[in-house]
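Structure, all two chains, one model.
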Amino acid sequence: MPPKNNKGGAKAKDSSAKQENDVVKTQTVFERAQAAYDLTRPPYDKEREELGGLHALSTVEKTAYANWFCTAPDELAFLSKKAQKELWKQVNETNRPLRRGQIDKPKPDQWGKDKLGRNIGDYTVQQYEQRIEKQGQLTCLKALGRSFASKRLYASKGLVDSSTGEVYKLTEEDIKAEKQHRKEMAALKKDLYGEKMGPYSTDPEWDDVVPVPQMEPEGALAAIAYPEDYAESMSYLRAVMAANEYSPRCLKLTEHIISMNPAHYTVWLYRFANIQHLDIPLLDEIEWLNGVALDYLKNYQIWHHRQLLLEHYYPTIAGSPDEVKRFARSERAFIMEMFAEDAKNYHVWSYRQHLTRKLGMWENEEHGELDSIEGMINDDVRNNSAWSHRFFLVFSNPRYSTPDSHATEADPKVPADIIDREIKYAQAKIKLAPQNQSPWNYLRGVLVKGGRELGSVQAFVEMYVQNIGNEETEQVHSSHALEQLADIYEEAGDKEKADLCWKRLGEKWDRIRLGYWEWKRRSLKAASS
Amino acid sequence: MPVTTSLARARRKVVFKRTPTTLSSARMATMENRATDIAVDEEVVSHLADPSVRGSRLPIDALYTSEPPIIDPLVTATSTAQDRTLDQCLPLLKAADSNIEYNANGAPRLHRERHIKYLETTIGNLPAPYVGADASRPWCIYWALNALSLLGADVSKFRESLIATATHMQNKTGGFGGGFGQTSHLATTYAMVLSLVIVGGESAYEVIDRRAMWKWLSSLKQPDGGFQMSLGGEVDVRGAYCAAVIISLLNIPLNLSSDSPASAAGLADLYTGLAGYVQRCQTFEGGISAKPDAEAHGAYAFCALGCLAILDAPHRIIPRTLNVPRLISWLSSRQYAPEGGFSGRTNKLVDGCYSHWVGACWPLIQASLQAPSQPAHDSGPQRESIPEFLSFYDREGLIRYIMSCGQDHSSKGGMRDKPSHRSDAYHTCYVLSGLTSAQHVVSAVLAEDEYVANMAWKVSPYSDPQLFDEQDRLNPTDPVYAIPQGKREEVMTYFLSKPGF
């Protein structure tokens, strides 16, 4: 029998309890395992290992080591009874401890790595215990999740709970509790393993959907490192779209994705399909949309969506003029809110034109657009979008205009007083800033619509252009007036004067367009020769 | 070509300072000469380009460095924005920034290598903030590949990756979405088809499922002649252009599938009523709007002209469809001085991207005014027949704007809207596209093969006056398809050889 070790543990007895506690706190998991391992073997084995071999030990310890090695149960079996007796005798004489335990030598990496790639063996014991506790919690939560899933399954099949005799029923509390559990699970998983559970995979409401993740081919061009939130919601979107699902949860999902990427046309189109299927009240959707529009001023999809909403709901209000007017006014109020940010936003203007046609917001109507547009032109007489809208408003009015009259041709149905009024309007605005091209373009457009000669406004144009070609006295307050004057001369057959205007435009008043003026000159010459 | 070689010799780097004198009379003289004696032109150019004659440096014409002759005192939001733009452009236009390298004409050099490097990053792996581009990845790819090709960089190395990416984004029901699992859209399909055409080769062309594409296009065709951008999407003039590009490049049969809404409305084929739709988009100003009733806009003018040039020869269809004099007047008003760049609408600011949208309209306008000349090989030896008018617009102004204000002069590279804006892939593509159209004279000639297209283009370098160094010349672009010259013929020839699907 191996002799009892009398000297082992002497050091431990010397340490105070407090010191020992401190060691435990700062000791790493690996150090603790190593210490435990050391307690299972004699000190000379540790020494041999640390010094790098048997040769470094004293003779007595070498002997002790050899004896210790041979007293291992497996080795003993090879020795004769006599040799064994000799061995034990020597062991006693050397008087060295002969410990032997059943623990394998610990390896520093045997605990694996944590989410940050840190060796868990390097954790302090305290940290390690906390980790184990969290793993335990996670296991419990998983078990709770399984029982929730079973209960839901039983409830869906109408099974009876044998312990209570009642039909299984999933209560609000159950769902609330499960949501809470998943939140805790998500936090634990993230904490322990760095695994992220997004809001959809943690929501029992989405359990029935198998997400379709985006698989990028090797070396895909312009591949985006999606934020996890976005990647997860897109995976669920692909799944519900493929299943043609239209439901409140899908509506919420589109809202979430739009908040991350408002330019995602697929999501917008799918959102509208949901609205159609679920018959969502118009005003609810508009209210939400207004917020999005103000957040993303340059976005295009928002305005197509709004147009689709308009098309979808118009039939429901078409019968009530009051409702149409009310809606027209509230839409205009929001449009003006958008214009406060950018008064030339093309998409908003396009929507405004569509709205005007749809709701009949013509200049002569009670809920008409004319006052609003005049206000905008007064704010900035150079806002060409406003001028453009005015032209549409005046010359596409179905009350008096020819339905398919082209914008660049005369419309004999437009009353002369309207033409007169618009000429006066444009002229009044030109006076404010003669070098502003918008009202000049407008004026010409009005004259064309009215089938009037450009020359009918010659006196007005000449207010801004004097003594063309006379080096000393030539005065031009508007290059647009000079351009118009040239066209007036051309119209009247006064080729020389027209040519002179274009020449002066190219030489001095609008030099960047020289190529164009020269082309005008040449065309006129070619036409007359 | 002699012009080219003499100019290459004339390359020089000079740090430029503003000089007060102007060149206006010289400029006028050049203009006059051009009309009367074309043969002198090349001589003048070589003469100017000869360093010994040119002397130290040319002054910059005051047209590009000082405020316009007429300014109204009234201040509004528009004039304030315009003033701010001039403030940021003028120092660059005056060549006043000593950190920038200028050529002998006081224009900055093209930072070719930087732009190439920048573009390659835009189709590499993009970080999370690019999530907003998730529905436009085909666009990112097209912008980069087209711009790289114009810059002369090798894009064939992207072929395999592009094929994998495109295959992944193609829907079984036809067309390409903005990404995997996204609804097919005409704009992203346009961008993806052009990308495949730019890298070229059978393996790239064969990615496209033409039968599905035909069915999908049929489903987008509207009773009013236009095209929806996607099922349930908007109808506008972009749709008309994108559809015409796709149909013509891929030789898609024109007849409508039986389930097309347009078929039910009695339309004959994919092109029926398309020109009529475009026509309804012309406005009282003469320009073209996105859809009927809206405001004239440069990008839509390009879409309209591009679409028409595909439907029939420009000299036939454009005058038949649009009021050309009003359109030319409006287009010409898009160029501002002193900036030199184009704006998109009346009283809006210059923006580099209109260098393409408006700039590419000019060759089509030119082609609409006269019947195409005979193909080049019929006109004898390499004698250039210079068109009567080199330009409706001021090429020098546009090139100055692009080189000075349109380039990001920092190490980032890329092109931009205006100096206060950051460079991006969209602007890099379209500013460079505009630059190459300003650097080349493109005129319509009769197509050698009637089936390939309604027209063919003859391209000759523009060099009058030479204000950029020859090494800063880009590869020429196709004015209708916005891809490097020659790519259109390759793909059309390929699909013409494939009867049916």
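The radius of gyration of chain B is 23 Å.
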